[in-house]
Design brief:
About 5% of the residues lie in helices and about 45% in strands. The chain has about 400 residues and is mainly β. The radius of gyration is 20 Å and the shape is globular.
Length: about 400
Amino acid sequence: MTLAAVLLGALTALASWPQWGGPNRNFVTEATLAASWPSNGPAQLWRRPLGDGFSAIVTDGTTLYTTYRSGGDDVVAALDAGTGNTRWEAKYAAPFNETCSERLGPAPRSAPLITGKRLITVSAGALMHSFDLATGEKQWSTELVPASSEAAKPCGYSTSPIAFGNSIITTAGGKGRGVVAIDAQTGRELWAVQDFLNGYSSPVLIDLDGRPELIVFTAGEISGLDPKTGALEWSRPHTADFGVNVAMPIWGEDHLLFVSSAYNGGSRVLKLGRQGDTIKVDEVWSNKKVRIHFGNAVRLGTRIYASNGDFGSAPFAAVDIATGDMLWRDRSVTRATLIGAAGRLIILDEDGNLTLASPGPEGLTINGRVQVFTGRSWTVPTLSGSRLFLRDRKEIVALDLR
């Protein structure tokens, strides 16, 4: 293989953000960014209208994929990453009787998933589709949660699925359908297990002492399963009012698993270890001081960074992963989503303010701040190399962070 091919492969890998949470499903990348921004912010590459919704953007480095709402339909959009021009769109009926739209805005909320040459999407009514990545041709669809099921959530299905081998794994909810695995090629159900009711969180795969472990955060518990079969390997209660467990758990190489929810849920850290076929689970700490609502958290080093709070204000905060101590709060950043990049943070608050910051033991050092949107901005950013992609409920924007 030539040096040019190696470099191209490395650049493509760095530019890929194929799923919820990015390449490593933890919202962290090693991308190199400018040290600071001018007063008017980073350079804008393009901006264009986009339909309503909160679905995150994924990319293979050349094409962006996301979903939006059009009447009673979901629309899957594939956009040229360099220009924003539409490459293809696919529309499908996605019925869902929402009770949250008037307050929160319309579905969809799940992030698409790029796996091989397929794009997987899920509607708020838990209808999963597979599309050809290049053409948008529909390949198959399957209903994860029947509309009449007790597992249907009042604010819609929000879980972003994950790929494992030739399967797509996600939560569903209800008797014997807490977690399901779907064959990526055919849409056939491979297995369905457990009686968990679904929350709004997304599963994550971890390497636990040399073997894969599937972590699911459902309406009342945090659990670990064998991703090959769905066999339950451990479970611990974690309840929140109305079963609103949303934020994806965060795993560290020190074997610490961070879990958090709002609405009286609080946070906890579990230490996991595999001993033969048994998994040892020890609670390191738990408290109600740290409460992540619907956004995400990022771990850098020994600290967790996230907006902390549910109703009312949600100041940006740093939490010690080992103790649960709140190290500092920054009220200049409102409720926000974020990405960690080479030790720094890219933060988008719900008012559309974008911040580049260096976190330290005493607080945030702001390296740049600019207002990108004026509407509600609840969708987590996507970083592809040095290009940042953002959306609110009306537009999608590409920025150059070099």
